[in-house]
Structures
1.
Amino acid sequence: MSSEMTAYVIEEFGGPDAFTETTVEVPEPGPDEIRVSVAATSLNPVDYKIRRGDLPDFAPELPARLHCDVAGVVDAVGENVDRFEEGDQVYGMPGGAGRQGALADYVVGHAGTFAGAPESIPLEDAAALPVVALTAWEMLADKATVEVGDDVLVYGASGGVGHVGVQLADWFGAAVTATGSTEAKREFAAELGADATVDYTATDVETYVDEHAGGEGFDLVFDPVGDDHLRTAFEAVRPFGAVVTTESSSTQDLSAMHANSLELGVVLVILPVLLGEYRERIGEELDTIATLVDDGAVEPRVDERFGFDEAADAHRLGESGEFRGKLLLVNE
């Protein structure tokens, strides 16, 4: 094979047009790593936040190849790797934060950050899953316990994490209420399995708690949005209930947590990649998620597809928020 590959990099932090097509050396896998021929990646908020320079501690070394998600075919394996062999179809979250990512012909990552791709969907569509499905799974299965019949409120239900959260909460047997700012987003949430939807821009918390949580409050509030949503989550949850979030960096008054004996769970799904530790938990959870996909419990919903050379357009759309589910970038 050629010793060089095409990659899309940022030389410095900036807007969507910061991406440059270039040629770089094909990376070699280390003893515990695999190299994957990239079929596709997808866009997550962490990707454009890194690109903008909002998360300098998360950024790969410049010039940086971004994007955390990947699906593709194993091309080479390190000497200590026995989980995979050349030709395996895999998906994972090997880099893009802390180390070089998937916006290139090949990506190298620790074998523990990969799993066999779901068999029931196209390989490239599996790239829509890792960050959002891992996040939703950890929020609902790790940081909280969802029982059959629980009232669960899902914020941002049409977004990447939210659209998987609705499906998982429904699979756990919860009564799911989903929020959305437009009729189209609310219809999408209902299609995914939400039992009720709320226009949070026109309905106050007390009203939808009365209508959908018996006036007492939701057993669990699922918040992948943060900021004002985290504040309203403390209002919407019942006493002794739980709030799970991915965005706890805002300043909040936590007195409601004390007054109502609440639990707060926080998920930073890329932490094992940043730390270089606990990476096997990624692969183990991705194994579970692949089974859920193949069993029909979870389906990644792709709103729009882009080529790698259209990364700027994908980032612009992603930052606008005017889409549902995920945006996929395919290595054409």
2.
Amino acid sequence: MLIASSTGGHFTQVNKIAAVLDDKDIIYLVEKHPSVLQRDNMYFLKMFNRKENIIKTMIINTKISFRVLRKTKPEYIISTGAGAVIPCMILGKLMGSKIIFIESFAKVKSPTLTGRIMYLIADRFYVQWPDMQKVYKKAIYRGGLY
């Protein structure tokens, strides 16, 4: 199983998921940031910064994601976003992984850009607020991660 995430709240949320999973073989693909402590089972994406060249960052993250996915061959990829993980999720889907996406806890009434993209490809799509089922008609609501 691969857990893909940006830093900050996205990473906090996926760590809550990882803590309850009984999977000893969890692999992480996260943005490189000083707040994320290096682990043996962790790979790093280039930090997604809207002030930089987004296309260049997406190309770099696509290459990193491809190498990690080819090496690890995860059955499932779980993510709460954000933009840095889009290449990983799309490539993972194309390579046969099941995609599980959880829309951000911060989004109470409107979708994220990453959520709108992932809604199209996710095998399971979760929201953390009941009102978000109006935005994503096929979403699953099971409560929030916090």
